[in-house]
């Protein structure tokens, strides 16, 4: 926990880079039910693997431009020409495996949506009981992230390991992992109360 120049207590990591502050205060941990946003975050967490979130956050708009704003149906149509285009895009992470995984995962996402109705329905069906959660930011995987990772891999998804999935759960609000003294934790709790689970 850290006190910031504005006198507000926040998660310590929010002070790690200037661009983290707005992301921490307005996005991280707030519940999301929009499939496009959920798919974007799965992809970006996959791209982050082995890198810092700051790198990804700074390139997020370039990723959105390169990946058709992460519209699932559009990314699913990407061809080898699109892979080559993205490999030449200095504004993103030019990693063939991660690029191909995002395209593959869009196709697998369509299958999952056909089965479950939406990505939101699938992911929120794995929401843990808040009473069972450990101290915030004390773990990097959970039973839920392992279960989701295992299931997605069986479905053919790639770059969705348990740590990547846990970061996704934190970011998309399936858990409130803001530190207990963080001022934003209460905002997230309030948003979760009002949130209509799919």
From TrEMBL:
<dbReference type="InterPro" id="IPR005019">
    <property type="entry name" value="Adenine_glyco"/>
</dbReference>
<dbReference type="GO" id="GO:0008725">
    <property type="term" value="F:DNA-3-methyladenine glycosylase activity"/>
</dbReference>
<feature type="binding site">
    <location>
        <position position="11"/>
    </location>
    <ligand>
        <name>Zn(2+)</name>
    </ligand>
</feature>
<keyword id="KW-0862">Zinc</keyword>
<dbReference type="InterPro" id="IPR052891">
    <property type="entry name" value="DNA-3mA_glycosylase"/>
</dbReference>
<dbReference type="GO" id="GO:0046872">
    <property type="term" value="F:metal ion binding"/>
</dbReference>
<dbReference type="GO" id="GO:0006284">
    <property type="term" value="P:base-excision repair"/>
</dbReference>
<protein>
    <submittedName>
        <fullName>3-methyladenine-DNA glycosylase I</fullName>
    </submittedName>
</protein>
<dbReference type="InterPro" id="IPR011257">
    <property type="entry name" value="DNA_glycosylase"/>
</dbReference>
<feature type="binding site">
    <location>
        <position position="182"/>
    </location>
    <ligand>
        <name>Zn(2+)</name>
    </ligand>
</feature>
<keyword id="KW-0479">Metal-binding</keyword>
<feature type="binding site">
    <location>
        <position position="24"/>
    </location>
    <ligand>
        <name>Zn(2+)</name>
    </ligand>
</feature>
<feature type="binding site">
    <location>
        <position position="178"/>
    </location>
    <ligand>
        <name>Zn(2+)</name>
    </ligand>
</feature>
<dbReference type="Pfam" id="PF03352">
    <property type="entry name" value="Adenine_glyco"/>
</dbReference>
